[in-house]
């Protein structure tokens, strides 16, 4: 998650430290990161060493087959360590309220298995009693921002960490405005195949974060990997799609 051209080198540097730490702990780890597979094609693999998963597919499908290591902490505004939220956006020149657009506008989301882009829309609808209109899928948060910025969509929910990174590499964000913020939930969660001892992985990850150079750590954005209680992942599933 959060792998972009601007920070790919930082991810590689981070992985090198993690790889060496895992090997030192007796855990076999590949030499380099695998960028060839879609992220959601890795969660069910029997050879998964380390991955990140959004809490929507985790709690609906993979809870019994993955070992949770800890949630990513990016130090997001208004979020406790290990938590994140979504930002609701519209075009900067659209004078309507977010509630009005949510109730009847053209809504886009990155993917059906995304908590930050799609799950929060269902939960917001369930909590407010507003019927969620048809949602079109764009394939990525970047594409959702582009759709709003170019007038092809009226409303989208964007992962707050993605939005933070886009300030540095995506001009389209300057054509959008934030009209609301979701409640917080577990950040992108590091996982491994089951059964494993999560404490070993968590210690290796946090040691690697601490060993990064200052510029690389700032580029990566990751501050720590935080253990959360299982109940933190028990977001209401009412009107949320199943991925079984």
Describe it:
It is built from eight helices and eleven strands. The chain has 244 residues and is α+β, with helices and mostly antiparallel strands. The chain folds into two domains: 8-79 and 185-228, D-Maltodextrin-Binding Protein, domain 2; 86-181, 3-Layer(aba) Sandwich (D-Maltodextrin-Binding Protein, domain 2), CATH 3.40.190. Strands 6-5-7-4-8 form a five-stranded mixed β-sheet, sandwiched between helices. Helix 1 (8-24) crosses helix 7 and helix 1 (8-24) crosses helix 8.
Write the layout of secondary structure elements.
Elements (H helix, E strand, L loop, with lengths): L7 H17 L26 E3 L1 H8 L3 E8 L9 E2 L1 E6 L6 H7 L2 E3 L5 H14 L6 E3 L3 H9 L5 E5 H10 L6 E6 L3 E2 L2 E5 L4 H14 L2 H7 L3 E3 L18
Parallel strand pairs: 5-6, 5-7
Antiparallel strand pairs: 1-10, 2-10, 2-11, 3-9, 4-7, 4-8
Helix pairs in contact: 1-7, 1-8
Q: What descriptive keywords fit this protein?
A:
single chain, 244 residues, alpha+beta, D-Maltodextrin-Binding Protein, domain 2, 2 domains, five-stranded mixed β-sheet, four-stranded antiparallel β-sheet, 35% helix, globular
> Architecture of the largest domain in CATH?
3-Layer(aba) Sandwich
Number of strands: 11
Major beta sheet summary? 5 strands, mixed
Which range best describes the helical content: under 10%, 10-25%, 25-40%, 40-55%, 55-70% or over 70%? Answer: 25-40%
Q: Strand fraction band?
A: 15-25%
Uncertain runs = 237-244
Q: What is the SS-derived class?
A: alpha+beta
Mean of pLDDT: 91
Spatially, the strands of the biggest sheet line up as 6-5-7-4-8
CATH topology of the largest domain: D-Maltodextrin-Binding Protein, domain 2
What is the count of helical runs? 8
Which CATH C-level class of the largest domain is it?
Answer: Alpha Beta
Radius of gyration equals: 18 Å
Count of domain modules: 2
User: How far do the termini sit from each other?
Assistant: 22 Å
**Pattern of helices and strands:** HEHEEEHEHEHEHEEEHHE
Shape: globular
């Amino acid at each position: 998650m959060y792998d972009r051209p601007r920070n790919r080198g930082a991810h590689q540097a981070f992985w090198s430290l993690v790889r060496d730490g895992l090997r030192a702990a007796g855990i076999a780890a590949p030499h380099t990161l695998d960028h060839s597979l879609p992220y959601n094609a890795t969660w069910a693999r029997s050879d998964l060493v380390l991955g990140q998963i959004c809490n929507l597919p985790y709690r609906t499908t993979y809870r019994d087959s993955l070992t949770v290591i800890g949630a990513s902490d990016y130090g997001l505004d208004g979020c406790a360590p290990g938590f994140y939220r979504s930002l609701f956006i519209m075009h900067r020149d659209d004078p309507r309220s977010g509630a009005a657009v949510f109730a009847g506008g053209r809504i886009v989301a990155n993917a059906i298995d995304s908590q930050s882009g799609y799950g929060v829309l269902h939960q917001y609808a369930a909590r407010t009693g507003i019927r969620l209109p048809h949602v079109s899928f764009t394939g990525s948060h970047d594409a959702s921002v582009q759709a709003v910025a170019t007038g092809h969509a009226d409303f989208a929910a964007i992962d707050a960490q993605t939005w933070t990174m886009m300030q540095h590499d995506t001009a389209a964000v300057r054509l959008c405005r934030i009209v609301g913020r979701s409640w917080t939930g577990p950040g992108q969660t590091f996982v491994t195949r089951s059964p494993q001892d999560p404490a070993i992985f968590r210690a290796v990850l946090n040691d690697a974060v601490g060993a990064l150079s200052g510029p690389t750590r700032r580029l990566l954005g990751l501050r720590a990997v935080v253990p959360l209680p299982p109940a933190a992942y028990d977001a209401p599933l009412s009107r949320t799609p199943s991925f079984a």
